[in-house]
User: What shape does this take?
Amino acid sequence: MSAAVITVETQTDFSQKLIIQRPSAGLSLQGCIRVPGDKSISHRALMLGAIAQGETEIQGLLLGEDPRSTASCFQAMGAQISELNTELVTVQGIGLGQLQEPVDVLNAGNSGTTLRLMLGLLASHPGRFFTVTGDSSLRSRPMSRVVRPLQQMGAKIWGRKGNSLAPLAIQGQALKPTHYHSPIASAQVKSCILLAGLLTAGKTTVTEPALSRDHSERMLRAFGAELSIDPDTNSVTVIGPAQLRGQKVIVPGDISSAAFWLVAGAIVPGSELVVENVGVNPTRTGILEALELMGADIQLENQREVAGEPVADIRVRSSRLKSCTIAGEIIPRMIDEIPILAVAAVFAEGTTVIRDAEELRVKESDRITVMAQQLNKMGAKVSELPDGMEITGGTPLVGTDVDSYTDHRIAMSLAIASLVSTGITTIHRAEAAAISYPDFTTTLQGVLST
Assistant: This one.
């Protein structure tokens, strides 16, 4: 066997083409991998550290562009954050309610988490004025899902298209507590309202139709917030005003990044990979359950708890996959992993159906349309559904020109698909992977086995 040839070309507009040529003799993936720190936890550690009293120490922070946007925004509002690195980042918090009015517009870049969670804090700072924006992608993504519940609490927020699109202007207010029944299971919506509740006297409650990831709840408790959870009704309540104190946070590896290697190890014949130090919070492990339903050979090893978050090493071996239906309560626990799951489904026997995932249409791209279009270009049989996809497996893929649409998860999913495609695949705008996984291409080159 000979290894795949991987080339990165930088264009005149600074976009990148990732070119992957699969060898005619085949290849396999072998080795141990450590993925970047969990993006969700990295965001929250920086935010809570910034508004807590005292110093917060963060180990294992994700160095992607999104957490850098969070750090930049909170530095502009008075928090002292050391140079970002994976070893140790220190945050000198300024105390809850003490965010300073910035001298310029706060720019969340491509990060919906930064913008949506931050809105809850900004709206609850009386007498201060803030303006927030993002890149062209973020400015097209819906913000009404957090603006409306904040307005119910008394927030004053203005923006484009009925206050639904950034840029947004916020006039901080003394908010009133609420019990918000969210129509969608969204950790961003839930977290935004809980953060607003930190400065709001009384009980602020969010009830969801299904359980979304609970990193905010875990970390808020660790920082000292008074929080109660009712699992029977999927409700979380925070009691304000709160007092937060700086903590030591160890960020585990991001299961959303690990998912690319789990699928790669499952679909590339003869492969065996171990992804070390991955966060396996039960509100995030839908991808493991889905792959197990498809017959993937996956084992959790060295299971442990680190700083309140469950962690494990995950071993995956290549296997024959079968189709299944993915829908219902599992979707919120794997929403970010559905693009790479679609790649797995292309190599599964039968027809895989993904439903209840309409949230994918308002991510960094319309991930339903984009994944269907790009995989079909490669020869797959993918049909769009209003809330998902129908994927008929077993059709060989052929390398061709595809496009990430500046979506990091699309770029990496197409790269994994190209490993089991004949010929040459060229992924345009592949630089998007740096949003959450700056070393993705280097890691891919490292696990290719001849």
Summary: The first helix runs from residue 39 to 51. The chain has a mean pLDDT of 95. Residues 345 and 393 are 6 Å apart (CA to CA).
